[in-house]
Fold each of these.
Amino acid sequence: MSTTDPRAELVSLLPRLRRFAYGLTGEAHAADDLVQAGCLKAIERWHQWQPGTSLASWMFRILQTTWLDEYRTRQRQQTESDSEVLDELMGVDGRVVVEARSDARTVRRRIAELPEEQRVVLMMITVDGLSYKEAAAALEVPVGTVMSRLARARARLADALGGGAG
């Protein structure tokens, strides 16, 4: 059993939590807000964390749950406009820039359309770099389930982006 202060371990987890949050939100500012909200919830519920268990897994679950709650709220209030992005591009002479941003938006949109369980596994493994075993522990599912969800997420993305083999 580790004698390190779990609060210090929480601080050392912040970069990983931020990468995971960025993968979920797609925006740096929103990711920072999500990490802050998640840390606040963790501190408020510190008594619920069990020493000897993975603090990282506990924090990933808190971030995931917080994001999902906020995501559902935003879905009801969403009024996104692409005109703001177009205004930023005015004066820039570069079809490549516009196409790259369009491609990135398409990929983010396709990832957002994945079922939550697939999207979360995809983010944990590809963005945060967790192993299958670590992701399985964080989600409290078997490793095979993580592998299956990841394979389905990748196949769906490939099909949606026109790279499918079928």
Note: The longest helix spans residues 55-77.
Amino acid sequence: MKEISRVVRSKEKARQTYDGISRWYDLFAASEKKFADLGLEMLNLKSGEIALEIGCGTGHALVALALAAYPATVYGIDISEKMRAIAEKRLLRAGLADAVRLETGDATSLSYADEYFDAIFISFTLELFDTPEIPILLKECQRVLKPTGRLGVVALEKEDSLAVRIYEWFHAKMPALVDCRPIYPVDSLTSTGFKIQEKKILKMWGLPVSIVIGLK
């Protein structure tokens, strides 16, 4: 696989960071929403399908997934307990508390049964995992997806551009603050057995954002 930067902060440091910024996270992540929304549109979850969001954060996508999947149950996992608590409140306000099951944990070791989900959604999260962990996480996705399941990924895409080089410089100098980095989403998915159904690339503050749908 092509070379990408490493993520050097520990999982515990990541948990502490996201717990600490949970109250303000929606402000920081506001620019990501339109890309996540497009990813959800491309994932095209249907009524009755069972879905999982990895890195569900404060629950914006969970609301959309739960509404689309009704009456099926939607699941969400995030490393931050405080982010999960905010997601629970958001779902309660939306009247969807009983439609979603949330878990705090590390997605490289999912607790769900084999071939359980119709769809998985990962938005601005895959690039938070260290390089050796990305295939582990994606193989877990393969395991828990049904034979006809699909995976939607929204992620920063690595390219040879000034914007990406500047961003990676900040990632190297301030890994606790800028804890994600651009990756190669298509290569990551295909190397773990996914077949690419659709891909779009857009720009966010000059950085390429890849939206990919992979089939098991």
Note: Strands lie at 51-54, 74-78, 100-104, 117-123, 145-156, 195-204, 207-215.
Amino acid sequence: MPRVLTTAMQTALCAPVLRCALLASLQFADNTIYVWSGIGPITWNGNTYQGVGSLGSISTISEDSTVEAKNVTFELSGIPSTLVSEVLWETRLLYTAQAYFALWDSTGNLIPNPVLSYQGKMDQPSIEDDGKTCSISISCENVLVDLNRPCYRRYTNDDQQIDLAATLTRLSLPSTTVDTGFRWVAGLQEQITFWGTMPSSINNV
């Protein structure tokens, strides 16, 4: 989705009355949840967003002039205790959460197109349960957080084979293609290379 304000969105932002809301999509293992900060269901982009009103909230979305991974927390309260285990087991770090900034016109129609304000990968949720209902907070990390993680890759044949299948698919090469370029790396550590004429003894300078 575009991050650029459309002409209609710019006009609405300059209007005397601002009718705004937040839309959120949370991807889980078996489905994607669509909610928004108002009341009742609305449909946008082919998906139905359920209104959670004051039961849902999103922490401040901030940006600055430095390249830094900013996280955002999605919170939803009033969840039945029977659904707690589902949220715990279906939330994974690789799943995506998105937040959109939306505006309405004076007649209650959604102005195209809501702006993607934040997108990140969901972390493990935090849960507060009183036995009847609970509140769930899910921290979402910006993709830039990967820059802080060490890269444990090696120039070895075993490491190369990890990505070989995906590389062949991306390059539209047959799956039977064999790449043995890194198979010889270990032997290079002990290899003695002579430039020009080979000496009669390895003890020669």
Note: The first strand starts at residue 20 and ends at 27.
